Amino acid sequence: MIRLASKHKWLGSLITCAILVTPVVNADEESEKEGLRIATERKESDRGWDNSLADMSMILRNAQGQESERRMRVKTLEVQEDGDKALTIFDSPRDVSGTAFLSFSHSKEPDEQWIYLPALKRVKRIASQNKSGPFMGSEFAFEDMTSFEVDKFTYDFLRDDTYQGDEVYVISQVPQDDYSGYSKQIVWIDKEHYRVRKVEFFDKKGDLLKTLEFEDYTLFDDEFWRPLKSFMYNVQTQKSTELITHELEFDAGLEDTDFDENSLRRAR
């Protein structure tokens, strides 16, 4: 009996050890991997457009609903193996006419941004620590005016969901830049085309700061989806900014030389 008990004890210890060394699927690792997959597919599904030119309106609304409109042109250039370049030129009203904003997005390095102020007749570089500031008095921050790059964030898959009748993935993305004004973003991405439908921005305290919704997605050149309306709402101040695209042209003949510091001064 003593030997039998010892044998059973030995077998029990062996089974316990086997359980301890058996690989366990880490739920956190799986959700991070899935979040990264979705973000990567989002980026890969929108490649090859090369360059574009858009005629847009920016509508600013205060908490009381009073609004003002600005007209602008946005030139963009796709950069392989790095972030995209963009030049925004304001045409009206008179107090902002001639103001130009140049942005170089990067996938692994800090973004570079400059703004030309015609009243001062000089180009001002936007410091990295100021990227969370408002862009031209809007609810968009300077960091919102850069292209999405996968390496800028870490990811976590949260759930499957529906948004306005479409099946979507919901993921969390955390900025890797210490100067970002956000602690995290929650992103709704449709499963069919990997288009962003909605984003929630959380401030450094972890509180909901803004929501961004994309509407009127339109397919250009039978390949590239673009939202004709983007609505950013600040839940803390009740202010909002709407971007409306009136015209959009791809393959507009833009080149790298159209996106440099000199282009800010000569932007018309």
TrEMBL record:
The keyword Lipoprotein applies. Residues 84-266 form the Uncharacterized protein TP-0789 domain. This is Outer membrane lipoprotein-sorting protein. The lineage of its organism: Bacteria, Pseudomonadati, Pseudomonadota, Gammaproteobacteria, Alteromonadales. The keyword Iron does not apply. Keywords: Lipoprotein, Protein transport, Signal, Transport. Pfam families: LolA_like. SUPFAM superfamilies: Prokaryotic lipoproteins and lipoprotein localization factors. Residues 1-27 form the signal peptide. It comes from the Bacteria. PANTHER family: SPORULATION PROTEIN YDCC. Monomer.
